[in-house]
Amino acid sequence: MDPVKWMVGIGFWVQGFRCFPWLGVNFFLKDALGVPPSSLQLLQNSANLPMVAKPLYGLLSDSVPIHGQRRLPYVAIGAVLQAISWLAIGLWSGSAISLPVLTFFLLLSNLGASIAEVANDAIVAEVGKHQKQGSSTSSGQLQSFAWMLGSSAGALGNLLGGIAISSNLSPKLMFLYYGAILIFQFFILICVSEKSLNLPNPNNKLKSSSSGGGFSMQLSQLSVALRRPDITRLLIWFFASYAVTPLLLGTMFFYQTEYLNLDSSIIGGSKVIGQAALLIWSIVYEKYFKKASPRKVLSTLQLATAVIMLSDVLFVQGIYRGFGIPDWVYILIFSGLAEAAVFIKVLPFSVLVAKLCPPGCEGSIMAFVMSTLALATIVSGYFGVALASFLEVSENDFSNLPLCILIEAGCTMLPLLGSSWISEGKIAEKKKE
């Protein structure tokens, strides 16, 4: 296998498998610490705050080499930070860990994950941009390959997580297992030289400049790129497509586990279905939609997400139950698809941004994209908590949940009004020629 694909595959697989310990976190918060749904969702969204600083990590990766290497050392640093956090949570005695301490370690874990993801995304972006279209790592193909690896790892992580929890395996053991995987990844990374990957380095001036000069140069290039109208409008639309939607993940988790009393294996299985859907989508996109209009693809996916949310309204009102469809069947299949639908447009968006991205700041631009996604989902999560609180939806009262979901679906359709801001990528194609 191409060494680039090998390293990208490992990186995206390990990050995709983060679903395994995070599923344990949900049940640990609910069962061991007795956290209510609003607090659970607030903690989960707040733990994503380090991901908002991804542009900084991208600038560092682009402009500050470590022992002459710009990518793999940052992936290794990310693996170490994650390993420290998960092992610390797993080794903490019993359930005596306090919520602030747990929050700190989850923040540290996501800091490490953010650094690793930025470096991995930069490898994908710059290789896909500089290789010839006929090669095995051409533009779009490496993104799809990485997406497939991450999705398959996510499916496996959720499947094993659901089985582990339903088998009464302590979530702390799940944290320890994932920490061991991260340590294994770290040792692989320190044994591989980045030179063996033959990564392109379009900005050779960085080699002769100081770290501060290189950083300033990358910051300047990023600033120029973000002032391009096609990129600016695209990022604003992408942010709005998430931020205006009040996500109700914490509320739905409690509804499924407390109100419907569904087994954890069903919850894990639904997430497996979602990851499998993302995996299938990556294959379908690569084969049929990669050359389609990005505006049409992204708009269609946004509309499909709203339609799936409307299906949840019918489910909560018991309409499907009246047709003889058991609750566990709907949750297993459609709940997973609903979660996947929220993030299904990330792949075509990433491919489009990679086409528009100016040479030399791939890491910075892709990091800014992921930062935009992180900030938007945090805003969306807080919006969801506020909506549930306003309509008095709690772990003891789900009577207004259908109205919450209806508002969620309606808000999801609002970004369709600004779909003209989605670039078709034609400017980048002309510049390349």
From TrEMBL:
The keyword Membrane applies. Belongs to the major facilitator superfamily. Folate-biopterin transporter (TC 2.A.71) family. It is a multi-pass membrane protein. This is Folate-biopterin transporter 7. GO terms for cellular component: membrane. The chain crosses the membrane at residues 6-29, 145-169, 175-192, 234-254, 266-285, 297-316, 328-353, 365-388, 400-422. Keywords: Membrane, Transmembrane, Transmembrane helix, Transport. InterPro entries: BT1 (IPR039309), MFS_trans_sf (IPR036259). It is found in: Membrane. The keyword Membrane applies. Its main location: membrane.
